[in-house]
DNA sequence: CTGAAAGCGCTTACAG
DNA sequence: CTGAAAGCGCTTACAG
């Protein structure tokens, strides 16, 4: 008999999962276990007749392969950690959704990690997640602790750093230039004739991409010979409510301001919504601009001028680059600028 | 020598992961592999001296346990699938965040699944995810395909059905009664003197929890001898923009309406933002109410009357119930009503 | 195209 | 408290 590979083993009372195993399928289909494995993972390498028998056995037994056994044997697992700095923010939800849709379609599982903008947490998370022998990894940003960098460089799987465009620290990168986005917004405000221009941001030490937007914003103003009138730094997470408070503060501290670039749309929308209550007309008394391109900005009055960041597309692109890396396909552009789009509307 | 368990094996050219293994740590610490395992998983069962040696070896080698080997050997894996119907919605983000925070703290990994409100996709997803031998599972809703139910009932791990309160189909439940929420809103509108009351919802066949709110809303109106004036059904996902369109439609189809309960805050906020453009005063011309309790509703003018659903708490609670189940601790209340809170504001 | 043997890196169950 | 043996359920590498 050709399938004596599937005999019962002694199995001294060890705990088994209870589920059907590849051995059960092999016995049912009267083939060797390895043939079952091939029928699943590389069907073309098995004769149609045997493939049919295996498929029937799988259906009859309700067989679901044990992923851990497979991953252990092949020392590679169809999982991909995606580490984001925040789960309080729609922005990262869209990145997650983009990556998910691509990975799930080819049978990869997303392992979601949240650092809350803490590089120490990122390092611990990454260490744990590497214990799953992931096929690849996606991490947010280009700034990591030395420990995280060392760990990822030692690791041999593909890795994509997302959110900001730049030279990859580890392997690959896809993102946008936040400096360029800030500069673009500065030039827009200048072109519209504003001259007493300020910036509002929250937690800029942690959200350093917002700080990069500020930096690009300021440089472009400088180049045009315009001084940045003020920078308001708030020490709480960005919310619509906080944007309203910021507006109040701007008008008490900087009553002559004629335009403000808010670090993101949440703050900017909050300012627009609060303005009528404060008797402030946007943009006549002060122009308001944001960043992200949240849908909400199109439904406030006046509509918000903002910069759209292609988050969904960035998530997808990162997953696609990773898959190429996993499959050993060439990735000609190891750093990809996903770009952004200025959307001038009524608020400026 | 007591550690002859750690001799080099023949290993005929098989692919190894390259990482340090438990055998490496054991050799380094001059103990048996099982001692390393115990030092990690049950430190109290190892003598302080040996524990110290093991810890030092782990640090020296940068050892990270291979999760797949552990999961395969113990036939249980520290992962928990969380299946949600949508990733386009902040609501589920908060549930995810709540569950994440509890599970991550005790070393469990969240496997995120998205069904896009498709029960067939749910079944496929669950089948794949069970291949990871998860410690437990969290699924959204109490309605599943027969196949999904059969699969989960056959499976022996703990499972929590979330989002809506009711008799668990599988194991445990935590959620809120959407019928009761609808009824509460109806009584609120009646108490404020409204009598020409309507409802707006989107994709009610899929988002059946919104349909449950409508059902409870209508029953409570009936009980008060008030007829539900209209139901507008829109066939696109709920967004702020769609809420504005809905308002327009209400005023052309039902010009005498004096109050509308929107299926969720996105729609309701959209209506409030669009109202001034249509020359409609809220609540004088028409009252607007929502559901979810998004922060945004507190910053529009007028502020939105809504029902707050404790999403973050629900995610946490589900994870806690699951952990209790995993640890074999008793869970006295297998179905938990997490409740909701009516927040009357200026829009009604 | 097919299979027997060996091994992935852990934990269980047993024995002291 | 400590360890040797066996096994979890797959895939790799070899051989035909």
TrEMBL record, chains A, B:
Location of the HTH lacI-type domain: 20-74
Region (Disordered): 1-22
Molecular-function GO term, any one: transcription cis-regulatory region binding
UniProt KW Transcription keyword: yes
Organism superkingdom: Bacteria
Database matches in PROSITE patterns: HTH_LACI_2 (PS50932)
Keywords recorded for this protein, A-Z: DNA-binding, Transcription, Transcription regulation
CDD domains the UniProt entry points to: HTH_LacI, PBP1_GntR
Name of the protein described by the UniProt record: HTH lacI-type domain-containing protein
Native source organism of the sequence: Spiribacter curvatus
């Amino acid at each position: 008999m050709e399938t004596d590979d599937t005999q019962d083993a002694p199995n001294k009372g060890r705990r088994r999962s209870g589920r059907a195993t590849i051995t059960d399928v092999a016995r049912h289909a009267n083939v060797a276990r390895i043939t079952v494995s091939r029928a699943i993972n590389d069907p073309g390498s098995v004769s149609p007749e045997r493939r049919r028998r295996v498929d029937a056995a799988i259906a009859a037994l309700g067989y679901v392969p044990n992923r851990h056994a497979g991953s252990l044997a092949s020392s590679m697992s169809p999982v991909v950690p995606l580490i984001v700095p925040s789960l309080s923010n729609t922005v990262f939800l869209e990145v997650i959704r983009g990556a998910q849709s691509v990975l799930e379609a080819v049978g990869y599982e997303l392992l979601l990690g949240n650092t809350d903008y803490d590089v120490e947490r990122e390092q611990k998370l990454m260490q744990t997640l590497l214990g799953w022998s992931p096929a690849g990894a996606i991490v947010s940003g280009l700034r990591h602790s030395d420990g995280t960098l060392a760990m990822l460089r030692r690791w041999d799987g593909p890795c994509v750093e997302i959110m900001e465009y730049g030279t990859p620290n580890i392997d690959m990168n896809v993102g946008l230039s936040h400096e360029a986005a800030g500069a673009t917004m500065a030039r827009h405000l200048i072109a519209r004739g504003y001259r007493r221009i300020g910036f509002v941001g929250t937690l800029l030490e942690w959200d350093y991409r917002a700080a990069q937007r500020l930096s690009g914003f300021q440089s472009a103003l400088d180049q045009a010979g315009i001084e940045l009138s003020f920078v308001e730094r708030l020490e709480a997470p960005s919310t619509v409510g906080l944007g309203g408070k910021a507006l109040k503060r701007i008008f008490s501290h900087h009553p002559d301001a004629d335009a403000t670039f808010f670090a993101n749309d949440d703050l900017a929308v909050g300012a627009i919504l609060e303005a009528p209550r404060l008797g402030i007309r946007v943009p006549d008394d002060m122009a308001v601009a944001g960043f992200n391109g949240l849908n909400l900005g199109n439904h406030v009055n006046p509509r918000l001028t903002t910069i759209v960041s292609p988050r969904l597309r960035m998530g997808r692109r990162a997953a696609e680059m990773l898959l190429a890396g996993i499959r050993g396909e060439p990735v000609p552009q190891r750093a990809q600028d996903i770009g952004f789009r200025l959307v001038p509307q009524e608020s400026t």
